[in-house]
Amino acid sequence: MAGLGVKEVTLIGGEAYLRDDWTQIVRAIRASGMQCSITTGGRGMSSARAEAAKAAGLQSVSVSVDGLPSTHDDLRGVRGSFDAAIQAMRNVRAAGIPVAANTQVNRLNLHELEAIFEVLAAEGIHGWQVQLTAAMGRAADEPELLLEPYQMLDLMPRLARLKSRADERRVRLFPGNNVGYFGPHESTLRAHYPSKHTGSCGAGRVTLGIEANGDVKGCPSLPTADYVGGNVRDHSLRDIWERAAPLRFTRERTPRDLWGFCASCYYAEACLAGCSWTTHVLFGRPGNNPFCHHRALELWREGKRERLIKTRPADGEPFDYGRFEIVEETWPAADRDRAELWMETTQERRTS
After folding, report:
1. How close are the terminal C-alpha atoms of the chain, in Å?
2. Torsions phi, psi for 278 (to 5 deg)
3. Please, are residues 286 and 280 in contact by the beta-carbon 8 Å criterion?
4. What pTM, to 2 d.p., does this model score?
């Protein structure tokens, strides 16, 4: 990885610390000149493990917190998960490791985001990543967890306000790759980007993922069956990175590969339908991303919105997904007043 020019490695799971050699891996990454962090649910991040991580050279730990106590525990399926996550943060900080947090945004926690941030900021986080819950794994089995595409009109102004609050608290709020897309808040949320807005999918261009068995993908979130380009036990990582088609797909994508709304979008060439993971697990292929703020705004101006309907269940395998269809409809009168408030917030941000 270092020979390819990798700068940072994040160990994810499951829980990376369940491997007996996890601190060896941290030491090897650091000895090779790369930064190393861990993302964890925090269930077993004890003081002893945090101290071992510090001794091995770990530089940051991001703890997943997906709601206030009741919501987080519901999403995790285990009572006490929230308390364990907060305790993990405290253990990590006590060991002298900077701590961050990450949150998957969905229908259960959308209206808790402001309160979640205040809880996390009080724990001394240096960064907070937010991304949309995608229709993979359990979320494919429980689609009622997923945001509807039109809820981007609510989410994006919320995140823009939270970004200002995060700046006040000296917390770096950074949206994941499946959040945004050329709406009026992009320059606020991605001020640290040279372009000040989201680009196209970075899988196989700026990221790669290596699974526990050695399978290599352009991004660790991508479905395994569709995107593995090879295994490091059979081929060198350089050969897989440079030659395997499943890792090259974003390098060769053009607007001609897009479909649906994205094919005719003004930003098609720059965006190329955004996050491939989010769209593939909805439709079985990338190229048409309904979770787009610009798209939701354009449809709003026409009095329309989009919803997702599940048409096929997931098959029960790791990294699985089902199938969904997009339904375009006229905004119901009962929902228009609420949407008007979202739009007023967006307009305020544009003129301030």
Report:
1. 45
2. -60, -40
3. yes
4. 0.93
Distances (CA, A) of 135 to 121, 329, 330, 342, 349: 29, 21, 24, 25, 30
How far is residue 84's CA from residue 324's CA, in Å, rounded to a whole number?
A: 35
Question: What DSSP string runs through 144-181?
Answer: GGSPPGGGHHHHHHHHHHHHHHHHHTT-EEEE-TTS-S
Cross-strand pairs, 329:
305
* CA pseudo-torsion sign 220, 223, 226, 230: positive
Is residue 195 over pLDDT 80? Answer: no
Q: How many residues does the chain have?
A: 352
> Tens digits of per-residue pLDDT, 11-43?
998 799 999 999 999 999 999 999 999 999 999
Pairing of strands 323-330, 127-132: unpaired
**What are the angstrom distances between the C-alpha of 308 and each of 48, 131, 135, 325, 326?**
45, 18, 11, 6, 5
CA dist list (Å): 195 to 182, 183, 191: 11, 14, 8
